Amino acid sequence: MRLTAPGRYGWRLVGLASIMWAVGCRSTPPVDPLPVAATPQPSNAESASEVTPPGEGSNSLELTSPAFPPGSPIPIEYSCDGANASPPLEWNFPTGEAQSFALIVDDPDAPGRTWVHWVIYNIPGTSASLPEGLPPEADSANGVRQGVNSGGGLGYAGPCPPGGTHRYFFRLYALDSALDSASGLTAEGLTEAMKGHILSTAELMGTYGRK
After folding, report:
1. Spans of all domains in the chain
2. Homologous superfamily of the 62-210 domain (CATH)
3. Which residues on adjacent β-strands are paired with residue 100?
4. Which of 5, 32, 47, 65 is most buried, judged by most C-beta within 10 A?
5. pTM score of the predicted model
């Protein structure tokens, strides 16, 4: 079969079709990709803590002991295996902020229940420490009062785990007033009396183990 080349008018038609095709391609606008929603960035107020937790901020309370660093073993002299003396404690709190301090020491690792080792309150707001070996007196001359531990005794009872290593938490409370409570409170009674009066809290944990 013999192919015939297009005539003069045929070539014109082919050229016109080519021009129309090229113009149509150039006139088609490019398709933009769909916009991607920007991920919202938190403002400064949202990225920072909006509410200062209790016990932190300008009037935060810090509790330490010169006898042992936080999380370290409590020396034997402060346990039932030694002199059973209360350890020295020191704290830092802005002067004039607290009217009194209170302290609860307990062992959450005791079998069956949390064992309370010390309850002491109405520590003057001007105080910044408790001395070593505080006598188990119900009422002291400076107004300090001591409560009842889980053994039924008054004042401090040192660590005395039946076996293994236990944790002992010293929790100090800065209060906006002295408590109108008699001596001999239990930890539960002191916790109830402190409701609505706590300005700040601090915690110190020490360990003690026996074989």
Report:
1. 62-210
2. PEBP-like (3.90.280.10)
3. 124, 175
4. 65
5. 0.73
3-state class (DSSP) for residue 188? helix
- Closest residue by Cα to residue 98 from 119, 121, 116: 121
Interatomic CA distance for residues 122 and 131, integer angstroms: 15
pLDDT of amino acid 80: 97
Q: What is the dihedral of CA 6, 12, 17, 23, to 10 degrees?
A: 150
First to last CA, the chain: 110
Question: Could you read off the pLDDT of 46-60 as tens digits, one per residue?
Answer: 333 333 334 433 458
**What's the full length of the chain, in residues?**
211
Share in percent of the chain as helix, strand, coil (round to 5): 15, 25, 55
Contacts 24+ apart (CB under 8 A), 22-27: none
Rounded to whole angstroms, the Cα distance separating 165 from 209 reads 4
- Report d(CA 67, CA 82) in Å as an integer: 14
Segments of 24-97 assigned E as strands:
62-64, 89-92
Residues 6+ apart with CB under 8 A from 27: none
CB atoms within 10 A of CB 93: 21
